[in-house]
Specification:
Length: about 120
């Protein structure tokens, strides 16, 4: 069955770095646009970063531009989110999402908690 499993979250001090991973299974990963979202307590879910199916195009929320990098390895069915210069306001549950627009398929992972605090 379809699975998206995130890992790499944790507690980090302000200014620190983390790399999130999301391993996919059960579908043709290389056909899907991959996205990272986050949701902080009491806030709306926010789209953080997007990468095209081939990995040649990326987009970022203004709030993370220049600090976060999304990448993917289609041979490993994995998408990454490298986060640096982390701020307390980056604290949230981060989830990966797989989207195939032409077939209206949309899959979600369970999320991983990122806490930025001293």
């Amino acid at each position: 069955q379809v699975q998206l499993v995130e890992s790499g979250g944790g507690l980090v001090q302000p200014g620190g770095s983390l790399r999130l991973s999301c391993v996919a299974s059960g579908f043709t990963f290389s056909a899907y646009v991959m996205r990272w979202y986050r949701q902080a307590p009491g806030k709306e879910r926010e789209l953080v970063a997007v990468i095209s199916n081939g990995g040649d195009s990326t987009n970022y929320a203004d709030s993370v531009k220049g600090r976060f990098t999304i990448s993917r390895d289609n041979a490993k069915n994995t998408v990454y989110l490298q986060m640096s210069s982390l701020k307390p306001e980056d604290t949230a549950v981060y989830s990966c999402n797989a989207l195939l627009l032409v077939a209206a398929r949309n899959y979600w992972g369970q999320g991983t908690q990122v806490t930025v605090s001293s």
